[in-house]
Amino acid sequence: MPWIQIRLNSNARDAEALGDELIETGAVSITFQDSHDTPVFEPLPGETRLWGDTDVIALYDAETDMKLVVAQLENSPLLEAGFIHKIEQIEDKDWEREWMDNFHPMRFGQRLWICPSWRDVPDPTAVNVMLDPGLAFGTGTHPTTSLCLEWLDGIDLEGKTVIDFGCGSGILAIAALKLGAAQAIGIDIDPQAITASRDNAQRNGVSERLSLYLSKDQPKDLQADVVVANILAGPLRELAPMISVLPHEGGLLGLSGVLATQAESVADAYRAIFEIDPVAEKEEWCRITGVKRF
């Protein structure tokens, strides 16, 4: 069916409230878009991160009287009189097919491919992880996930135990298992991430070797040979004492979810315990790796 949308400019303080008002006028969906293409972090579970200047885009059925919608918005305390707006007709498409066409098999490092289930596997002899976009973060498309996957592909995981701290979709834990790890442990604060990781592990035939815990339930004495945490710079700094105890002495640590401007401060939070490698960078995002000192 055809659609029509209205685009309004707002800010981080008012954008969500404006979105709620647009829903009340009959909008079927709301999208928040950065007005200046400012890079932001992936949000924490249950959190909506907005930019300083935010376009609020509301989608309506094409039969909607947009003059009436604009008239209702003129009474909004969140908008100034004579507010600027743009109304556009949206081409009718098979949106599900459009969405699926955006995901292709992706190669990371020398051996590893991440493949959506509706695509043919490019190399049956490679290490193939079948993963579909879902409720939890992590499909390999984001540079931070890519950096972590490339790191895992480049280290010896044979027979090792790996902890994926902030497992999201389980992509890193599952990749580690298919790259030779004997056991993987996924930890997350979001129950949806635990469900997604379990489902993806079953799809890839590794569920018997993957243990999953909500962070509040993880064993106190948990340790592993390799620990990877692809979350956010703030939590990586704040949780450094908790994350630092997870690798064995001589164990490997990989951290991502960090912008280049934040890499030094995150690395500093771990230097006392880890020998830190040179930082790897991709599209303004970084990966910090190191070895735990004896």
UniProtKB/TrEMBL annotation:
Entry's EC annotation: 2.1.1.-
Keyword Lipid biosynthesis: no
UniProt binding sites for S-adenosyl-L-methionine: 145, 166, 188, 230
Catalysed reactions, semicolon-separated: L-lysyl-[protein] + 3 S-adenosyl-L-methionine = N(6),N(6),N(6)-trimethyl-L-lysyl-[protein] + 3 S-adenosyl-L-homocysteine + 3 H(+)
Entry's localization field: Cytoplasm
MF-aspect GO terms: protein-lysine N-methyltransferase activity
Keyword presence, Zinc: no
HAMAP family hit by this protein: Methyltr_PrmA (MF_00735)
NCBIfam families listed in its UniProt record: prmA
Family: Belongs to the methyltransferase superfamily. PrmA family.
Protein name: Ribosomal protein L11 methyltransferase
Organism: Providencia heimbachae ATCC 35613
